[in-house]
């Protein structure tokens, strides 16, 4: 019997896909695991969504049944990338992701969350990381304690948000 409602439906169903309450997310993940579904987790900024993001999410989703995406909050992005980022505010980035076919559940990640908080909460079967983000062996070993396996994906395009912003800056000079 096919399920065609909520995150399993054909529509955007933003109210089902965006789960800001981490306790609720934990309950949902436990339920899916009881059903025998394979959970995949990835995260990122997803600022100025581009083809590399889309292909990355497609590859991540192919590794399981449910793709959970942690999106860096605006304050987390500013702390890491500077005061001019993100270009696209978190509410828009989350909504854009909710419209992509491979995103099942989206939540926000904040600076005040302890390290690996979302990984520990979801305890995914597969944790997908991008090789374009610097992860040393110790970091990967720490993350692997909380998941079935860690998959490192190559960048899926020749572009990045930072590269696009540099090009815009050059062209406008």
Short description:
The chain has 173 residues and is of the alpha/beta class. It has one domain: Rossmann fold (3-Layer(aba) Sandwich). The protein has helices at 14-17, 22-34, 51-61, 74-81, 90-98, 117-122, 137-144, 161-172; strands spanning 39-44, 66-72, 105-109, 126-130, 149-153.
Explain this structure.
- This protein is α/β, with parallel strands linked by helices and about 170 residues long.
- It has a single domain (about 20-170), classed as HUPs (Rossmann fold).
- The chain is about 40% helix and about 15% strand.
- It has eight helices and five strands, in the order ααβαβααβαβαβα.
- It has helices at about 15, 20-35, 50-60, 75-80, 90-100, 115-120, 135-145, 160-170, and strands at about 40-45, 65-70, 105-110, 125-130, 150-155.
- It has a five-stranded parallel beta sheet with strand order 3-2-1-4-5, with helices on both faces.
- The longest helix is centred in the N-terminal third of the chain and has 13 residues, at about 20-35.
- It is globular, with a radius of gyration of 16 Å.
- It starts with 13 loop residues before the first helix and ends with a helix.
- The model has no long low-confidence stretch (mean pLDDT about 90).
């Amino acid at each position: 019997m096919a399920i065609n409602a909520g995150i399993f439906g054909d529509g955007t169903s933003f109210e089902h896909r965006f789960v800001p309450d981490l306790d609720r997310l934990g309950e949902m993940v436990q339920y899916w695991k009881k059903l025998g579904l394979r959970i995949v987790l990835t995260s990122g900024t997803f600022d100025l969504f581009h083809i590399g993001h889309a292909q990355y999410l497609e590859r991540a989703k192919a590794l399981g049944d449910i793709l959970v995406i942690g999106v860096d909050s605006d304050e987390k992005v500013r702390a890491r990338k500077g005061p001019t980022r993100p270009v696209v505010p978190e509410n828009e980035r989350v909504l854009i992701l909710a419209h992509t076919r491979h995103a099942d559940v989206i939540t926000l990640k904040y600076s005040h969350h302890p390290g690996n908080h979302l990984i520990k909460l979801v305890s995914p079967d597969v944790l997908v990381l991008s090789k374009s983000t610097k992860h040393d062996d110790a970091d990967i070993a720490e993350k692997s304690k909380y998941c079935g396996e860690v998959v490192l994906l190559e960048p899926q395009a020749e572009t990045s948000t930072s590269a696009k912003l540099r090009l815009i800056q050059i062209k406008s000079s």
